[in-house]
Amino acid sequence: MNEILTILTSVCVLTAGVAADLQVTAQTTDVPASVAKEIQTKLDPNALTVRHADGDKLLTLWFRTVIPAEASPAQVRNGLTYREIPTGTLFAVVQFHTDFTDYRKQTVPAGVYTLRFAIQPDVGDHIGTTPHPEFALLSPIAKDTEPAIVDGKDLLKRSSTITDGDHPAVMLLFPHHGREAGAKIVDKGEGVWALLTRRAVDADGDKSSLGFALTIAGSSKSR
């Protein structure tokens, strides 16, 4: 899982009616100095960088080298899902090289953020707004300096500071059941594109892996 991979995948993305190619590469990349040392030590230096066809960077993503999970040996044998990752678990750090539009059509300023796992509540105005309830919630790196699990309410507060308290900044997670080791960008329909990769997971000493499909372009049509 930690070997250096170099993968290049090109796809066509429609954003605001304009076609733009996106490419992903995997290579050793320094973690930004603004990331707390305690978090830096948990990150895989083999980062994934998404670029436009002209070479301009959209984002760089450092996944946690080993993502902690809570699962029984039977669950590990049968295959892990996002639900075995506790809410508030740190699983990656992302750097947006330009302002980013999240899945709720909110503007996330260029900068560095942690990504922590969360599940959208199935109540009120959340019902029917997303194809899947699992999300990555973003927190400004200055407000997130410890790798330990963050309480769900505290995570919501931290993330909501990005959008001036209106709503947490989010990146939708799609299921990813593929076993391939590399990274690629895939069309999820309706102008939504996701970055796919598999990552190492540890469930109380039981080693496994879990597929991630993180939305990197496109937004909810119900927002």
Percent of sequence in beta strands = 35-45%
Oligomer: single chain
Largest sheet: 12 strands, mixed
Q: Number of DSSP helices?
A: 3
Structural class: mainly beta
Number of strands: 14
From the alpha-carbon coordinates, what is the Rg to the nearest angstrom?
Answer: 16 Å
> Number of folding domains?
1
> What gap, in angstroms, lies between the N and C termini?
37 Å
Model regions low in confidence, pLDDT < 50 over at least 5 residues: 1-20
Mean pLDDT: 87
What share of the residues lie within helices?
under 10%
List the helices and strands and how they pair.
Layout: E1 9-15, E2 18-28, H1 37-40, E3 46-52, E4 57-63, E5 67-68, H2 73-78, E6 90-96, E7 100-101, E8 107-108, E9 111-119, E10 134-140, H3 152-160, E11 170-174, E12 184-189, E13 192-203, E14 206-217
Parallel strand pairs: 5-13
Antiparallel strand pairs: 1-2, 2-3, 3-4, 4-6, 6-9, 7-8, 9-10, 10-11, 11-14, 12-13, 13-14
